[in-house]
Amino acid sequence: MNKETTPDPFQTKISCRKMGDSGVSSADYERIFKRFDANGDGKISATELGDALNGFGVSAEDAKRMMDAIDKDGDGCISFEEFADFAKDNRALMKDFAKAF
Ligand SMILES: [Ca+2]
Ligand SMILES: [Ca+2]
C-alpha cells in the first residue's frame, strides 16, 4: 500500500553502502567487526582478534602488536570506534577482510 513512503532502516543501510574511494564502506567495517566479535558483546578481545587473524595466517605475536595498535585507550578490548579508526588508516587491509568475510 504505502510501501514507498515507509522508511525501512535496513534498506537505507544497504543503499548507503557505496561510499569512500576504497570500495570498503562503514557498513563493511561493521560487518568485519561483527565477524571479529565472536561472542557478540560489542567489543573485540585479544583472544577474538587472535583467533580471527589466525585464519589469515597472522601469528599470535603480530595479532598482539595489532591489538596494541588498535586499542587506543588500553582497556584490553577493541571497541567499534577504535576499530573504525584503525580501519580508516588501513583501507587496503580492510579490503582484504571485506573480501574474505
Ligand atoms: Ca567480544
Ligand atoms: Ca579499547
TrEMBL record:
It holds the Pfam family EF-hand_7. SMART domains: EFh (SM00054). It comes from the Eukaryota. Residues 24-59, 61-93 form the EF-hand domain. CDD domains: EFh. PROSITE patterns: EF_HAND_1, EF_HAND_2. Keywords: Calcium, Metal-binding, Repeat. The keyword Repeat applies. Signal peptide: none annotated. This is EF-hand domain-containing protein. It comes from Citrullus colocynthis.
